Amino acid sequence: MSASFVPGATPARTVRLIGAPTDIGAGARGASMGPEALRVAGIAEMFTRRGLTVHDTGNLHGPNNPCLPPQGGYRHLDEVVAWNQAVHDAVHTALAAGELPVLLGGDHSLGIGSISAVARHCRATGRALRVLWLDAHADFNTHDITPSGNLHGMPVACLCGDGPSALVSMAGHVPAIAASSLRQIGIRSVDEGERHRVREAGLEVYDMRYIDEVGMRAAMDKALAGLDDHTHLHVSFDVDFLDPEIAPGVGTTVPGGPTYREAQLCMEMIADTGRVASLDIVELNPALDVRNRTAQVAVELVESLFGKSTLMRDRG
């Protein structure tokens, strides 16, 4: 563990919950119900148990899902832009107020607005940015290689400067983030054209093959290396990161993901840094869930992300 890490050092602060009830960027309907499922699973109460003040601002508003086919390689581009602008503004407001924004999604296209706001804040405050992208998918498609046109498969590409101008420029700087600031963890579903682009961009990817070979601890040691007091750590947690055996309530399940224990270790190691400053929880689809099980698992893991630990021995 790096000497700059401060185990269990998540400081007392205010968490701002921001609901974004839309599945506008997804192929399957239902992620729009994700924010309420997380609330029902007790996310606000969990943060209170962790000693944090909770400010639930309710849900943002945006256009309905028109369920139209893609145009020019994008489905619902105008609507996705509107939702992401609303997310950007809400996240940026929370950061400016000294609060920790937690985006309750909603599909993962919303990560464009959320991370664009974080990147804008980091540039204004002179902080470095590290983004941990916990996901089964690389989300690095573009309009000319996407098999579906769904924008929840393109947020990383947009953040790295490749996408429609309204999304690419949302942070006030193009690209919003450098590819070198991103670490992708748990990846196991990548389209062939997307695979080439990921390699070309030099994204740092700890896929399931790598995790199988070296273990979650070694993968996270690498993903977290180099963090210091001047780094803003953003976690973008797509619930399909988890194996569908423990998290069936997502629209794009991919077998072979992290087990509960692997995911908990991942979250605990992130918590050990004491650097988490913003969070997305996305792609939860209650329409495909069983008795809100996936939302409950997500809340349990986020509690580990904010300091709940299974560790009984002394660190050393």
Automatic annotation (TrEMBL):
Gene3D superfamilies: Ureohydrolase domain. Binds 2 manganese ions per subunit. PROSITE patterns: ARGINASE_1, ARGINASE_2. Its EC number is 3.5.3.1. It catalyses: L-arginine + H2O = urea + L-ornithine. It holds the Pfam family Arginase. Its cofactor is Mn(2+). The keyword Ubl conjugation does not apply. Pathway: Nitrogen metabolism; urea cycle; L-ornithine and urea from L-arginine: step 1/1. One of its GO terms (biological process) is urea cycle. It comes from the Bacteria. Mn(2+) binds at residues 108, 135, 137, 139, 238, 240. One of its GO terms (molecular function) is arginase activity. Keywords: Arginine metabolism, Hydrolase, Manganese, Metal-binding. NCBIfam families: rocF_arginase (TIGR01229). PANTHER family: ARGINASE. Belongs to the arginase family. This is Arginase.
